[in-house]
Specification:
- The chain has about 350 residues and is α+β, with helices and mostly antiparallel strands.
- Among the domains are: about 90 residues, no CATH class; about 55 residues, no CATH class; about 80 residues, no CATH class.
- About 40% of the residues lie in helices and about 25% in strands.
- It has 11 helices and 14 strands.
- It has a 6-stranded mixed sheet. A 3-stranded antiparallel sheet has the order 1-2-3, sandwiched between helices.
- Strand 2 and strand 3 form a beta hairpin.
- It is globular.
- The two termini are about 40 Å apart.
- About 15% of the residues are buried.
- InterPro entries: RNaseH-like_sf, Transposase_11.
- This is Transposase.
Length: about 350
């Protein structure tokens, strides 16, 4: 399992493993699978979905995922198995004709702070083999996303300019994604910013595509469902931060897998507990915003001293924190109430 692979943190000289995870509609993890560290994201989906169906006997399933695993091989596999999907599609994989269709102002409808239009496309392999199935592309333009895209790109270009010497950067200072997107590679060691590429990407600011084989799905509903994909990202962030899944201080494969299992179980317990607590507030008509970090802090700060005689609790003392931690005390007590 321990292999050198691409890290989104830009690290390339460290061993790693790759984790695939599925969560339910409420964001509670239900399954994970570990892959060797040199496995590309797009190569994880097929075996993961088959394992998911086999273990849990799921007949009706809709896969919602980001553009990292959206490739034609994966889509054709899902179509062959009769599995529904809602993916974001990469703009840089489109033909010039489709890019022109997207960037043209015609036929857009405005609703809920974004513009949208849709297009039916054939499911084709290698630009020629049609399998008789169709996909729907829901094209969106968001003014807010346009502002964010521009800000992120400008921040990145500023960082590159700070590292540049006479307008050139060493390749080791670049994330691979941007070597292709914004740069001209000179030989094998240095690169320069390509302003024509940057201007071309600028024209795509604010646009995104959701691709689905649910042909009766409205663009608005497709967008609503896809936006819940952030719940998967939130679970990965919790694994990395609160549960400290990395770095891993064990070396054998058996111990690495055991460490990941413990982290996953802890994640399930945390997310399910938070789900129960939020439902408790909702059923009582109480407005209480509880983040995962606040919930974890409340559990960590509270201590209970119990005195037992013959197996019976005769005294229980919950430490009352100072006035600055009233919210933590309330959350803890409400959590105990909702779980009993």
């Amino acid at each position: 399992m321990r292999k050198n692979g691409f890290s989104k943190d830009g690290k390339h000289n460290e061993d790693q493993v790759v984790i695939a995870m599925a969560v339910d509609w409420n964001g509670i993890p239900l399954h994970y699978k570990v892959f060797p560290g040199n496995t590309a994201d797009g190569k994880t989906m097929l075996s993961f979905v088959l394992e998911l169906q086999f273990l849990y006997k799921i007949n009706d399933i809709t896969i919602v995922a980001d553009r990292g695993i959206n490739n034609n091989a994966n889509l054709r596999f899902l179509e062959q198995k009769g599995i529904k999907y809602i993916f974001q599609k990469r703009l840089d994989t489109l033909s010039n004709e489709m890019k022109k269709f997207i960037l043209q102002d015609e036929n857009y409808t405005f609703r809920d702070d974004f513009f949208w239009k849709e297009q039916m496309v054939e499911s084709i392999w290698n630009k020629k083999r049609f399998n008789g199935q169709y996909r729907k592309w829901c094209v969106f333009f968001s003014p807010g996303k346009r502002t964010l895209d521009k800000l992120k790109r400008n921040n990145f270009i500023d960082k590159l300019n700070q590292k540049a010497i006479n307008g050139e950067l060493h390749l080791s200072s670049l994330v691979p994604e941007y070597k292709k997107k914004y740069m001209d590679i000179n030989g094998k060691t240095v690169a320069k910013l390509n302003w024509e590429k940057i201007k071309k990407k600028e024209s795509e600011d604010g646009f995104y595509i959701i691709e689905t084989n649910i042909l009766n799905l409205t663009p608005s509903r497709a967008n609503e469902i896809y936006k819940r994909q952030w719940k998967v990202e939130e679970n990965f962030r919790t694994l990395k931060s609160s549960l400290q899944v990395r770095p891993v201080f064990v070396h054998s494969e058996k111990h690495i897998l055991a460490h990941l299992l413990l982290c996953f179980i802890a994640l399930v317990v945390l997310k399910y507990s938070l789900y129960k607590l939020k439902n408790y507030y909702k059923s009582n008509g109480e407005i209480q915003r509880v983040t995962l970090d606040l919930f974890i802090d409340s559990l960590r700060m509270m201590t209970i001293t119990r005195k037992e005689i013959d197996g019976k609790v005769v005294q229980e003392i919950i430490n009352d924190l100072d006035e600055n931690h009233k919210e933590n005390i309330k959350i803890y007590k409400d959590f105990i109430a909702c779980m009993t």
